[in-house]
């Protein structure tokens, strides 16, 4: 079954995007990326620690993957724009996940600043995927501004709580023309599967894979869950009922009647 | 002279260009990006940038992130 989707002019096969944070080692991360089948992986930018030479994480990311730099650490649009420009200058390409956060407790995105950064970076030729609180009006504005996809959160980052925002994400899926990718909060393959079942284009997962006892196995599990969810979506889920609806015929019973 | 590197003030002994400065710090050029006085400096022109008193440098690299 060839079922590709398109972001930023690129055809993508995998509906699982993988983050690279929190893995026990670069080697494990590399194996997990391979097991996940992800076409897009995210990285962050930070000040170097001049006291210790570390391996370049980019050396551990398979060549075939699209690198998408997040703007984590940004507290406003200007900081996000600065980080995106730095990423491009480093040769990491044009893909950027805008992440603007001011709230340290829940790490919820600042939608207005995220929109401002989207407007600026799209004009500069970036392929922009804003991480956002699920809000139809804001998602429309982001799509109108040229966002290549919109990425509503399922639950707070790293919380593993699943698709708590289901109703709002569902509205976005039905109304927004660009791909809707659930990013953040997904803690198990079944939760990722649920997102695809309901019509999300893809999911972005990091913590649930990275901190699993066996990240490589978990990456493979997410890969399969996403494929299953997408297939179910295409197949068409049945209507839910309040009472039983027998699966076996209700005639021809072996009774003395 | 004093320059500010990644938010911390440091004293450097003599005038150097950016390329030599990075080289002396054991940093691998291919993995890092440098901002000099808030302007991104492409690797190809590091040699042409000479550090001066009160300059600000940000030296940045990729790390894991979601």
In words, what does this structure look like?
The complex is a heterodimer of chains A (257) and B (66). With 257 residues, chain A is an alpha/beta fold. Chain A has a single domain (5-235), classed as TIM Barrel (Alpha-Beta Barrel), CATH 3.20.20. Chain A is built from 8 helices and 10 strands. In chain A, the strands form 2 sheets. Chain A has an 8-stranded parallel β-sheet with strand order 8-7-6-5-4-3-10-9. A two-stranded antiparallel sheet of chain A has the order 1-2. In chain A, helix 2 packs parallel to helix 3 (111-123) and helix 3 (111-123) runs parallel beside helix 4. Chain B has a single domain (2-61), classed as Ubiquitin-like (UB roll). A 5-stranded mixed β-sheet of chain B has the order 2-1-5-3-4, with no helix packed on it. The chains are: A alpha/beta (257), B mainly beta (66). The interface between A and B is medium-sized, with 34 and 23 residues. Strand 4 of chain A pairs antiparallel with strand 5 (56-64) of chain B.
């Amino acid at each position: 079954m060839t079922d590709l989707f398109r972001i930023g002019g690129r055809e993508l096969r995998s509906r699982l995007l993988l983050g690279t944070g929190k893995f026990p080692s670069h080697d494990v991360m590399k194996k997990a990326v391979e097991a996940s089948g992800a076409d897009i992986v995210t990285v962050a930018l930070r000040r170097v620690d001049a006291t210790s030479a570390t391996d370049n994480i980019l050396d551990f990311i398979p060549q075939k993957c699209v690198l998408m730099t997040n703007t984590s650490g940004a507290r406003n649009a200007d900081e996000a724009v600065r980080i995106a420009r730095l990423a491009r200058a480093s040769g990491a390409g044009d893909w950027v996940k805008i992440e603007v956060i001011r709230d340290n407790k829940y790490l919820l995105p600042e939608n207005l600043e995220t929109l401002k950064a989207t407007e600026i970076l799209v004009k500069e030729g970036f392929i922009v995927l804003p991480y956002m609180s699920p809000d139809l009006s804001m998602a429309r504005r982001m799509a109108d501004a040229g966002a290549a996809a919109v990425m509503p959160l399922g639950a707070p980052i790293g919380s593993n709580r699943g698709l708590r925002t289901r109703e709002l994400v569902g509205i976005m899926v039905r109304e927004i023309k660009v791909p809707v990718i659930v990013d953040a909060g997904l803690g198990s393959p079944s939760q990722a599967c649920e997102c695809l079942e309901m019509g999300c284009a893809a999911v972005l997962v990091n913590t649930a894979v990275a901190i699993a006892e066996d990240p490589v196995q978990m990456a493979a599990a997410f890969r399969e869950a996403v494929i299953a969810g997408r297939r179910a979506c295409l197949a068409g889920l049945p209507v839910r009922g309040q009472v039983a609806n027998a699966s076996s015929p209700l005639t021809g019973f072996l009774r003395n009647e | 002279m004093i320059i500010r590197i990644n938010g911390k003030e440091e004293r450097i002994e003599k005038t150097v260009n950016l390329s030599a400065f990075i080289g002396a710090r054991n940093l691998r050029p291919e993995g890092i990006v440098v901002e000099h006085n808030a302007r991104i400096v492409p690797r190809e022109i590091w040699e042409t940038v000479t550090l001066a008193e009160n300059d600000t440098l940000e030296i940045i690299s990729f790390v894991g992130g979601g």
